[in-house]
Sequence to fold (636 residues):
Amino acid sequence: MIVTDELRLAASAPGAKDERVDARWTRPALAALLLATAVLYLWGLGSNGWANDYYAAAAQAGTQNFTAWLFGSHDAGNAITVDKPPASLWVMALSGRLFGFNAFTMLLPQAVMGVGSVAVLYAAVRRVSGPAAGLIAGAALALTPVAALMFRFNNPDALLVLLMVVAAYCVLRATETASTRWMMLAGCALGFAFLTKLLQAFLVVPGLALAFLVAAPVGMWRRIGSLAAGAAAMVYSAGWFIALVELWPAGSRPYIGGSTDNSLLQLALGYNGIERIAGGGGPGGGMGPGPGGPGGVRPLFFGGEPGIGRMFGDSMGTQASWLLPAALIGLVAGLWFTRRTPRTAGVRAALLMWGGWVLVTGAVFSFMDGTIHPYYTVALAPAVAALLGISVRELWRGRRFPAPRVVMAIMSAATGVWAFILLDRTPDWWPAVRWVVLVGSVVVASILAVGAHRLGRATTVLAVTAAMLGLAGPTAYTLATVANAHGGPMVVAGPSVGVSGFDGDGPDRHAPPDGPGRFGAAADNPALENIVREASTRWAAATVGSMTASSLELKTGASVMAIGGFTGSDDSPTLEQFQAYVAHREVHYFIAGGHGGPPRRNHGEASAIATWVQQNFTPIDVGGATVYDLFEPIVR
Fold:
């Protein structure tokens, strides 16, 4: 008798319960999971301050000006947008308009998105493997360290994850009945995910499409037609905004930050597309010019070296890989055990979908040679959690048979060993945890292999113990993530002993991750803040890059032009445009030395503007900052 038949026999044996039907404990357990997730993500949420000042300034600008909100402008004067599309900023700015803009109301939607992601993932997994599997998956996602980081932060990743999980749920619904309507809803979710973080949203498409193409209960041409309808909905739900940007007169909207030709489509295909994959054009781009320097070693905050081991390496391993070995083992075992089930089997379709998500996204992240950061791995967390929940629950149903028990034992032991390795990377932080997890997991694995079917009521104790040990490592890192404040564009989950500082040549391994002097921080300068706050022009001030501009905008509420965008390397405004702004008295001050961080390109226009200002206006010292009053040119 093959293992597939053994699992089916276990599920249909006399007295066996159909656990896909909600029991009385299901709703209270789900409510407890969601409540605990909400507490985890909301606890001390304001301690992160403005989190990433770059996006916080744009969210604030969106509360002050409709055009800034629509296009995701970095400033209310609408000089330039951030280098991502604006969907996540729309949500944060709307929260600020409704409740008043501050750090908590800005981050509140992110935490809500985290709870929503857990709820939707539970619903998706429950549809194929029952509520127990859904609870396992939801808990695994909630307790992934990088998820706790991003669902308490203002980067676009929180909305991206929520929309991708919603798309996966819609595809599962579509697969059950070959529903074109559900496929179109999945396409709409992915389209808006594109408007959140561009091409990264499409990494899940192969897995979603494969599941529907294999398992939908209709003929092949009907399946292809439904997929085409979903693709059309995806293009439409993303394309309307691209068309809006392209058709809107360029002179009455902000420049598209990060692009080379003021085009959102070029941004998607260039800096946030090909350059991310092929490298060479930005920070961390291959072994060429970038944070590591020409021919140097890529800094850990930029993902470490490309290769098959990147997801498990020093840079990314502790972010989201805690349960990845078990999930991959469960994926292989699940596909093997269901190899002779009907084509339309829901469990196999789900394994194909979530497995495709993990394998494609993981492969791209592993081998891409451009800019990548450890927190990108949050995109893997839902699929890893789903694979874990489905495989554990389905294997547990067949625990009376040797093969499922052995696989579960291997998954438990692999999780314990890998958690030990990850925890050993911070040996001075809670050193006992790694030994407890290792020894406990090996003991539980041994019991699972030889006696899981003989314990009677003690079986529940074994299951709970295995779950606690498996989640102990990521839970510890998640609690450390929540307990510590995080800020700036370079953040990592876990205790404050990792790599996050950046000194221009590489990571500062001795700097606290979010302490003074981090990349993205700007020192307080009350005198400078006062003159900016009192200015009444379209832009109170201008400075190269976003570092000083973001900080001043948040502290004063004024509009500050970030010349050249994020790093000062975008060709906007041009020297001629800036001269026109000055001539029309639309910008009051120029602040020298505002840029920081690794440039993507040379500061051509920014350098020309700075030189012109220095030659035509008198510098004054304001609290240690060099400032030029653009209303007072040098009289020659």
